[in-house]
Inverse folding.
């Protein structure tokens, strides 16, 4: 199928020898453990959809219609691990403010550890944050650390997300004012 990913698993050889790669199966859903991903079409943008709550609806039909390859991840740990295998063009994730975290104010929300990791691989990735209205006031703390492409208020409908995906830039990078 055009646009699917080819997964190449790394298998360790004898002690002291190099790692060799062998072709594996084609997939569309979650990433297999310890694999490297190559996009066959090379033209289709890759989107990490990080789903941590039921509020994050399934927008896979929209992504398909827009020609975007959707990689669905169910935790930040899996998302960070997936960064080692593929660099996304877009990240869509729900913002959850850390009201009582034990990190002495270092972590603002559920996204910052992933976004720090993402910076090592790509600074061009567009971050789209979904947030509940009552936590909207805290998104500025995250925006001060990372450039956010768009912030959409939950519940998100397909039209809002489509606009966020197609707009050039809706939010300013950290430290920039108009």
């Amino acid at each position: 199928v055009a646009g699917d990913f080819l997964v190449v698993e790394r298998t360790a050889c004898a002690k002291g020898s190099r790692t060799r790669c062998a072709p594996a199966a084609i997939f569309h859903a979650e990433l297999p453990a310890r694999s490297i991903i190559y996009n066959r079409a090379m033209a289709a943008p890759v989107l990490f959809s990080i789903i941590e709550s039921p509020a994050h609806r399934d927008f896979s039909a929209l992504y398909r219609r827009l020609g975007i390859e959707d990689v669905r991840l169910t935790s930040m740990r899996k998302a960070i691990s997936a960064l080692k295998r593929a660099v996304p063009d877009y990240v869509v994730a729900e913002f959850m403010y850390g009201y009582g975290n034990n990190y002495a104010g270092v972590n603002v929300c559920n996204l910052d550890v992933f976004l720090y990791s993402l910076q090592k691989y790509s600074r061009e990735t567009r971050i789209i944050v979904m947030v509940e209205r009552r936590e909207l006031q805290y998104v500025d703390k995250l925006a001060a650390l990372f450039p956010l492409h768009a912030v959409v208020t939950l519940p998100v409908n397909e039209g809002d997300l489509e606009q966020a995906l197609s707009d050039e830039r809706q939010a300013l990078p950290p430290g920039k004012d108009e």
